Amino acid sequence: MLARIFTCLIAAGLVALVVSPVHAQTQDSYEYQSEFTWGINKNTSGGLIGGFVFKKARKLTDRQLETFGLEIMNVKHPQERKVNSTTTGNFFILGKSNYLYAIRLQYGRDLILFKKAPQQGVEIKAVFAAGPSIGVVAPYYVERASDSGYGFTIHEQYKPGMDVISIYGTGRLFEGIGDSKLKLGGNLKAALNFELGTNKNQVTGFEAGFLVDAYTSEIILVPEARNYSVYPTLFITLFYGARK
Question: Could you list the residue range(s) of the whole structural domain that residue 59 is in?
Answer without folding.
Answer: 2-16+33-78+102-133+177-239
